[in-house]
Amino acid sequence: MKAILVRQFGGxxxxxxxxxxxxxxxxxQVLVKIHAAGVNPADTYARSGNYAVIxxxxxxxxxxxxxxxxxVGDGVKKVKPGDRVYVAKSLSGTYAEYALxxxxxxxxxxxxxxxxxxxxxxxxSMPSAASAG
Length: 133
Hints:
Layout lengths: L1 E5 L8 E5 L9 E9 L3 H8 L15 E9 L11 E5 L9 E5 L3 E3 L6 H4 L3 H4 L3 H4 L1
Antiparallel strand pairs: 1-2, 3-4, 3-6, 4-5, 5-7
């Protein structure tokens, strides 16, 4: 599969399109064929090396995305291959053709919501400190 890989921290120039192995879902995991990836500010901070949680290099960025379930690991009951879904926190990164997620990180996406909108569902729907007060 094709994936964006970050091999060193820095600006956008460190994002490189490369060949990478397609992940295989283990028990409780879902493999999603990504149709759209969300661009989350946390992805930018991590890529630059200025974030509370720094991923080990190399890594594929992207926490949010939307697409179609390709396959599922043992025990997955919430979704099945062919389901339209959005991913809220990927295990393997959503800047790729396929992304691995825990079953708890995958949610059904209604047919009326296009993939690009589905990829952006998580961040705006999260309660923020500003709205909690």
